[in-house]
Amino acid sequence: MLGLALLAIGLFLLLFLWRGLRRHPSMTWGYCLLQTICWCFVRVFYRMEVRGLSNIPATGGALIICNHVSYVDVVVLGVLCPRPIRYLSWEGFERNPIINKLTRIMRTIPVTEAKAKDAIQKSADALKEGEIVCIFPEGSLTRNGGILTLRRGFELIARRANVPIVPMAMDGLWGSIFSHLGGKSFFKWPKHFPRPISAVIGKPYPFSEHAETRLRLLELAAEAFALRPSLNGHLGREVTVGLAAKGGQVALVDRTGARREFSGAMLLSLAWVISRRLSAATTARRVAIVLPPGVAAAVANLACVMVGKIPVNLNFTLGRDQVQSCLRRAEVDLVITAEAFKVKLTEKFPDFPWGDRLMDIATELQSLPRWQVAWRMALIRALPSRLIPLLAGVPARGGDDEAALLFTSGSSGEPKGVILSHRNILANLRQIEDADILPPTAVLLSSLPVFHSFGFTVGLWYFMTRDGTLVTLPSPLDTNGSIKAIKEERVTVTVGTPTFLRPYLRRATAEDLKSLEWVVVGAEKLPDDLAAGFGEQLQTAMLEGYGITETSPVLAVNVPDKAEDEAPNGIWTGNIRGSVGRPVMGVAVRFVDIETGAVLPIGQVGLLEVRGANVFPGYLGDPARTAEAIVDGWYRTGDLARLDDDGFLYLAGRLSRFSKIGGEMVPHGTVEQALLKALNLQASAEAVIAVSAVSDPAKGEQLVVLHTVDLDPDALRATLAAEGLANLWIPKVFKKVAVIPILGTGKLDLNKLRQLAQG
């Protein structure tokens, strides 16, 4: 042992001498020694990938700003930078005798609230002398993995010193023992060894452009996130490992009819056997699935990905022509369904195009020999979870290959085939996990259709790859069934759209939902009265999120506020009413002028564009639409939005739900809310008002109000005027209809709205 210790010391001294002789001229031997120690630490515990190192100036002063994810950010940054860095740090570190010696070697600049100006001036002086200074502009560790509010000190420092700002982002340290995931640092086990991390350094920019700092950091963080090696994996492999790790733990509770529990081992065994039958049944790449949420849909989808086939979950609420178009473009020759569901669906949609070849998943599952399932379950329980994909023949790498095909709901035209790669889905699963919105102990109730992008990613894959339990119901319209499930299964989180959740206010009590910690809401704007009703009447918080099929789907989400002593006012704010939360990790956003295409500064409303590893590669067989949607790597969402200084995203409406009247953009959603308020119908459980538009030769467009209730147009217009609504925004055309068309996802059917308005 002594010999090994002496050898290690000798090797370290040689390494130190080698690095010392090659060190930057401005680096002291003490700093070099500390950097060498840190280099050894990083080499042992991390696998680091760095991009853009040449963007750090070789000479002259420069201010590095970086996101603050963990307590080892300083160590990693100090190792990768060839020049010595002077950090701004909390003065309290100076009072620790050991840390004090280290800070002296590093020549850190202490910061206190009382002497903040002194720290700013010292930093500016160091920069003027040609040194590198680093500041973490958030001022503290992130509490949700994302970038928190940026404090303005870095702007003053760069301005006083007249030096460039060098932006940088690190990824991979969130969730490590040195981060604040789960509300604590240090007291948790590392999940990876060595842990892959990445750092991306952006190009320097002048201090005069400081207003763009948050957007630049988000873009660099998205690039760093995309470097995660795990994103090259295969969805089927990740689900197989996830279910195998659960073993005898309950993974899914199906409440379609009689309540049935399925352990991770049971669910995986069923899919394993079905995958063999599926492989023999078709040679086509894609397989159509027409099923509601539940064990049948889970097994069918998992069986597909286990044998490298692409599941196509069809929206069975679409018309015959649209479904046939989806089947034709997807080039499927087999549809998986269940006879009982087929009969029920045919009653509602008699002309549903089932195709020539069907697989009845219910019959297949009932006919499985018990021994085939039993020996696989035993194997799954006995062997390490990472061996199971090898035995099951699940591919190891998927990466940019197609993993799933979803057809958009067709709210504004023919459904588009959205190709999602393994990388896209795996990225979004990690983004949802990093947001800490679904903790490992969560019991999630999901009744969203599997053809709904959120129901597909969260209501299917998330809880088959992570800890926690998934409870399924076949329909989001079954409010009584949902309330009963929440009460009996002690559900902690549920998801839905405002349309599907509003009936809870009439049918549920706070006692019914006492186990429910929060509800995640999306797909439509969350009305204030619904959020207030859930909070006051049902004692349950509603957290609004935002996603799009093309982004796998989650882009942003509010998270619960956290009470902590270190936070301003004792609270870390994660949820702001009216916003859809902060963008999830790995998502970059920007806002462009719809007329000029110029990128707008933070705070201004513009067309939202996003980029990240979760953004789809393109539309099926439609390069023209793909080129229109993705420009220079940025996906144009079609939504108007803005970002505030704290990083919260606010939606202003869908671009397709605006009318240009007399040169002014008029939002349909805002007019609808004004109409509902004037009619005192904000709490209506059903859609009774919708605004569309038709062309107008004089003013470009004209608003048309479609309504199912009786109303007096003249009196209503007078009320709107009295409430202060702009004259251009007050509709003049009203049409009574039998029903407001709603898609299976709970959104307005914009295509049918336009047809009704023009009819």
Brief write-up:
α12 (339-348) links the parallel β12 and β13 (358-360).
What does this structure look like?
With 759 residues, the protein is of the alpha/beta class. The strands form 8 sheets. It has a 9-stranded mixed beta sheet, with helices on both faces. Strands 1-7-6-2-5-3-4 form a 7-stranded mixed beta sheet, sandwiched between helices. Helix 2 packs across helix 3, helix 5 packs parallel to helix 6 (153-161) and helix 9 packs across helix 10 (295-306).
Fold topology:
Blueprint: H1 2-21, H2 29-45, E1 46-51, E2 62-66, H3 73-80, E3 85-90, H4 97-106, E4 109-111, H5 116-128, E5 132-135, H6 153-161, E6 165-171, E7 195-201, H7 213-225, H8 235-246, E8 250-254, E9 260-263, H9 264-281, E10 286-289, H10 295-306, E11 310-313, H11 320-330, E12 335-337, H12 339-348, E13 358-360, H13 361-366, H14 370-382, H15 388-392, E14 402-407, E15 417-421, H16 422-434, E16 443-446, H17 453-465, E17 469-472, H18 479-489, E18 493-496, H19 498-501, H20 504-507, E19 518-521, H21 528-536, E20 541-547, E21 554-557, E22 562-563, E23 571-572, E24 582-583, E25 587-592, E26 606-612, E27 618-619, H22 623-629, E28 630-631, E29 634-643, E30 649-654, E31 658-661, E32 664-667, H23 668-678, E33 689-696, E34 700-707, H24 713-722, E35 733-736, H25 750-758
Parallel strand pairs: 1-7, 2-5, 2-6, 3-4, 3-5, 8-17, 10-11, 10-12, 12-13, 16-17, 16-18, 18-19, 19-20, 34-35
Antiparallel strand pairs: 6-7, 8-9, 14-15, 15-27, 20-21, 21-24, 22-23, 25-26, 26-29, 28-29, 29-30, 31-32, 33-34
Helix pairs in contact: 1-2, 2-3, 5-6, 8-9, 8-10, 8-17, 9-10, 9-14
